[in-house]
Request: fold
Amino acid sequence: MKKFITTSLMLLAMGAVASPFAKPSEDSAKLVLGHSQPTKQLFEMRLQAVNGENVLDRGQAVWLKPGEYELTFSSKIDNRHTKNQVSVALKKDRNLQNTINITVDGGKTYYMAYDASDRDRQNWKPVVYKSE
Reply:
């Protein structure tokens, strides 16, 4: 039993060290995901995975340690504001592009959204539309 507890604690500690997430007070990059601009066809997203590892919903803002990441999102396309009336079936289409590779720097804020501005839905994708 003692060996099991020790092993479990070591695994938990290793998982905490390997986490890509940071606290706002640490040297981190802030990703803003909930700042949509429907008139520009930029829609809100939710973070689903970091480097292929599923993550719990972290809301409209996420802080990451500086580095390179592959981020996977789910889009929240608003049917009322799309140029090509988007059906419910399309919004749930798993073939939509939902991954972006990004390098983030500490102290910067990245505004991200799902860009559905192209008439061809195959070109819709997550984008960084502003950084500061």
